[in-house]
Design brief:
125 residues, mainly alpha
């Protein structure tokens, strides 16, 4: 599959993931769950959806998703989640919860660029 087609599919699948991630983060933090915990919960729900969607659609191959893909995905997800949680938490502690909700999409968009290349060249290889 071409880089452009994979990029388009990654954006589409990522948008679905992001909506779920953001909604879980906002709802949980609105009801008093600490922002960092809510962010990790949101990223977990998005990751579960994203691993399957990207593995079966965006970066699909004749090889089914397996343990190697999952381990690589988990490693990348942990690193990206640490960065995301740190950035969103930093905004939340310095500017307030509502600004953290607004900053989260920006943080995730920046991380999505790195995630695409990590996924294409390492996770789903």
């Amino acid at each position: 599959m071409t880089l452009a087609r994979q990029g388009w599919l990654f954006l589409l699948m990522g948008f679905l993931q992001w909506i779920l991630d953001w909604a879980v983060t906002v709802v949980l933090s609105h009801f008093g769950v600490p922002l960092e915990v809510a962010n990790v919960c949101g990223r977990i729900t998005g990751a579960l959806l994203g691993f399957w969607l990207n593995g079966t659609i965006t970066f699909s191959t004749s090889t089914p998703l397996g343990r190697r893909h999952l381990v690589r995905f988990i490693i990348a997800w942990i690193v990206l989640t640490i960065i995301s949680t740190w950035a969103v938490g930093l905004v939340g502690h310095n500017a307030g919860l509502q600004y953290a909700w607004l900053a989260k999409p920006v943080v995730e968009a920046v991380l999505a660029v790195a995630s695409f290349f990590i996924s294409r060249y390492w996770i789903y290889r």
